């Protein structure tokens, strides 16, 4: 991986950052820039970036009245896809990608918050090379995306049928958080703990922050995805 990339990050709230992705970017010597939508929602010229990472956040893609920048963000994301940039969308980021590609974002039957397994539907997809058939990941969502037309559905869980998709071999949507570190997980749990009403697929604050078992594996799987997508 000799080419150095200009990677741009869309960040929606200060407590949901890149996590381990920042380590991967530094290790490979790529450059990193940000649009902090909560502070300064200005977008770069697409000619100046090679790849885009769209992070999560507690808002919905439908909240344009409350967050007017969502409208401009959708235009920017669609333009980046049309320009064939390599893109990863995480949680809200994946829902934004699905939406601009004509998909629907709706309430999931169950909220899914905490550590629960996902299963791979097709191990032959190159981007998942070396992945286990099933593994536990960190979830935090009440909504779900439909799979955009011409995209490949990659993963599912008991609570949510659509967990990941790949579009044109360049655009990856993940409903869950492989990037999460111990500190990032605690930040999300602290700032969004009002959502932690115990349910079938909602763990308690203590259950979440005390479980660091899968973080190392999740970060390794994130690195593998980044290697495969950005090679």
Automatic annotation (TrEMBL):
SUPFAM superfamilies: Class I glutamine amidotransferase-like. Residues 35-187 form the Glutamine amidotransferase domain. The keyword ATP-binding does not apply. InterPro entries: ChyE-like, Class_I_gatase-like, GATASE. Keywords: Glutamine amidotransferase. It comes from the Bacteria. This is Type 1 glutamine amidotransferase. It comes from Flavobacterium fructosi.
């Amino acid at each position: 991986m000799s080419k150095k990339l200009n990677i741009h990050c869309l960040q929606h709230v200060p407590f949901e950052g890149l996590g381990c992705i920042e380590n991967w970017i530094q290790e490979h010597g790529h450059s990193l820039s940000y649009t902090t939508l909560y502070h300064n929602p200005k977008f770069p010229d697409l000619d100046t970036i090679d790849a885009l990472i769209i992070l999560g956040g507690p808002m919905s893609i439908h909240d344009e009245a409350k967050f007017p920048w969502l409208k401009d963000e959708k235009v920017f994301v669609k333009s980046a896809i049309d320009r064939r940039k390599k893109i990863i969308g995480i949680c809200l980021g994946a829902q934004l990608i699905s939406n601009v590609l004509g998909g629907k974002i709706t309430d999931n039957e169950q909220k899914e918050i905490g550590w629960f397994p996902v299963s791979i539907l097709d191990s032959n997809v190159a981007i998942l090379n070396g992945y286990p058939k099933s593994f536990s990941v960190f979830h935090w969502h009440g909504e779900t995306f439909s799979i955009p037309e011409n995209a490949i559905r990659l993963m599912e869980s008991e609570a949510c049928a659509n967990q990941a998709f790949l579009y044109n071999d360049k655009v990856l949507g993940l409903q869950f958080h492989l990037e999460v570190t111990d500190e990032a997980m605690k930040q999300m749990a602290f700032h969004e703990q009002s959502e932690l009403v115990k349910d079938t697929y909602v763990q308690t604050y203590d259950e979440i922050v005390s479980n660091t078992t899968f973080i190392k594996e999740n970060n390794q799987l994130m690195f593998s995805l980044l290697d495969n997508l950005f090679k």
